[in-house]
Known about the structure:
Its main location: membrane. By secondary structure, this protein is of the alpha/beta class. It is built from 10 helices and 13 strands. The protein has 2 domains: 3-218, Rossmann fold (3-Layer(aba) Sandwich); 222-280, Alpha-Beta Plaits. The chain has a 6-stranded mixed beta sheet, sandwiched between helices. Strands 11-12-10-13 form a 4-stranded antiparallel beta sheet, with no helix packed on it. The longest helix is centred in the middle third of the chain and has 16 residues, at 163-178. The protein is elongated and about 75 Å long.
Amino acid sequence: MDTVIDIDRLTKTYGTRRGLDGLTLRVGAGEVFGYLGPNGAGKSTTIRLLLDLIRPTSGTARVLGLDPRADAVELHRRTGYLAGDFVVDGRQKAGECLTFLGNLRGGVPAARITGLADRLGLDLGARVKSLSKGNRQKVGLIQAFMHDPELLILDEPTSGLDPLVQQTFLEMVAEARADGRTVFMSSHVMSEVEAVADRVAIIREGRLVALDTVADLRARSYLRVRITFADPVPAEEFALPGVTGLQVDGTVLTCDVDGSPDALVKAAARHTVVGLRADSQDLEELFHTYYTRGEAAPAA
């Protein structure tokens, strides 16, 4: 897989504050890459460095095989970018704004703009300053997608969108991947990238703390089990390998199971079970663990 984004020990400091700390990361061609972290973790700083909107303190980055500083014009031509704080001239109508931005890129067919606007439910005749935050975000999405770029770099792309439009956006991302294009998508919400991302990176306080496929992260999640018995049970019978967070309150047992639940099920079968519920750990909770504990990431 060809490398589209190649980051090597990238660091950015703002006076005494460090925005990014020695980030090393590679994103392959045709990949949807989720870049996750809480607000202030360094996601937007990374994106701005990739596009030469700010300059690094140290380290290097290459995007589409190009130097973001020396080849900025070529890089921007081949990239669709949605800023986390997308702002355009509010006096223009949405359609006029998008046509203007398209002309800056050498022209975008009107039918392409209209088609995207119809999909997202944007009124092209409304003035930008009259639009809600969600509708302004639709303008931002259209200008990023409308020229079918090789690389999409999207910073918090679903901010302000309602759930139905979020789903349409995810369909657009999946279509871009099917066309062989690469999507680098930052977010602080796992659920909006889980459905489409091939891999995800988690960043915390400017440092990479996790990098893996969504499937492998799922495999590392545990089961949350709640068993209700006909009569009270002794907790010590369920102190088994892989069982953590064990609590027994009369007839109700709750615990987490890492790995096979076979031993727990066999122990429970020695008693009369009247209720059983087992849920996979929510990925939001899994990522919260990385946010708060800051585990070291595997090599990129």
